[in-house]
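Blackboard transcription, Thursday session:
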Amino acid sequence: MNHATPAAAAGGGVLIGVAVTWLWLALGRIAGISGIVGGLSRTDAGWRLAFLAGLLLTPIALAERGVAVAWQPPETSWPVLIIGGLLVGFGTRLGSGCTSGHAVCGIARLSPRSMLATLLFMLTAAAVVFATRHGFGR
Amino acid sequence: MKMGQLLAAFGAGVLFAAGLVVSQMINPAKVLGFLDIAGARTGRWDPSLIFVMATAIPFAALGQRLAQHVNRPLTAPAFAPPARRDIDLSLIAGAVLFGAGWGLVGYCPGPALAALDNGSYGTAIFVAAMLAGMGLFTVLRR
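(Written on the board underneath:)
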């Protein structure tokens, strides 16, 4: 069921890259989602909330206009969803970034910190997927 | 907070979410299909995420390049680059913990939040746990 969709992926990537560039040129801010959410308790919460409003409202707005939004939930049991959520939330704050902040923005800035972080979370995630799909005698 | 800043940030969020929808990275099954490198043995590996990065990173780098020609952002007094430059244990441990959670579920923060309106308990449970994990970090750091 997983077939590659390179054209759609590249097109979506352009939009994400333009969003990152726009936030930098307009506000001077890094478009890292975990950093934007993690800083909500700071005094500059306004622009963070505005960004998140755009992020949350756009998919449903597209779906209501008939766009096929492939936003089906994960096929994961709820205990694993909770463990995974805690790891993603805590880990992205401890490591100062997630896929957007480190892999897109950080590599675009040629940041050694972000390159190492990206390598580590990609390798760890791939190892976990290997263990859950192919490991344990499967 | 100037209205221009709010509108600019909202627009960035709209574009970002549109990118997640178009690229289908909002779908955790697509992300897990990429992370399942061993799936290549059976022809099931989905390299789509590489194509997302292949265009997103150069277009993001464009902003860095363009910013070198201006003194300040359009709506703010100064650029706010990340303060940290050093590689430390927090960076390494955080990236590994994040990767473990990403591999278990297929969600990183952006797609999980963008999919929050899909009406499913699964996405909502993940987002609640993710926010709790972020809150836990804030509490422990004090």
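Lecturer's comment: Chain A has a mean pLDDT of 95.
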